Amino acid sequence: MSAGVTLAPMTSADWPAVRAVYLEGLATGQASFQTEAPSWEEWDAGHLAACRLVARDGAAAAGDADGALGWAALSPVSRRHCYRGVAEVSVYVAGAARGRGVGRRLLAALVAESEEERIWTLQSSIFPENAASIALHERCGFRVLGRRERVAQHHGVWRDTVLMERRSRVVGTRDHAAP
User: Fold this and answer.
1) pTM of the full structure
2) What pLDDT is stored for residue 1 in this prediction?
3) Contact 126/90 with Cβ under 8 angstroms?
4) What is the mean pLDDT of residues 22-46?
5) For a tag on the chain, would you pick the N or C end, based on fewer CB atoms within 10 A?
6) For 72-76, what is the mean pLDDT?
7) 146 - beta bridge partners?
8) Could you tell me the domains of the chain?
């Protein structure tokens, strides 16, 4: 990975940079069922307050759109109390930063932070054509649970997803009760 890359908690000031990376991922057609980026308020409401990271070039200041190399965040999978320790992963890397270890660094840090927040299961739903994302998740301890066929339409085309999961070895074990 390039020297000078820093990870920091994401704030609203980072949204323009995060949104730019998000839009770049959406443009690939392989990153999400979303077709456009939401407003900050919508995005903020749909993600956990903790476990939000932005990677930027070490010389870039917070909110500098040119310095954003990627981001990662967690969304709750349910509002039901019994699922409070289960979250869905989003991780996006700018095209110019791909292949430099940014995604792995973001996802590894997100996993560590999720355990600090007492989250015991992380899941990710990835288009099967996105082999790089599947490989990234596997390198960070996720396993393939299965393939969901024709789960939703994307630009009018039915798409499959690969469902991946990472279970914490720390949180939610026999020796560690759920919060």
Assistant:
1) 0.89
2) 46
3) no
4) 90
5) C
6) 97
7) 163
8) 5-167 (3.40.630.30)
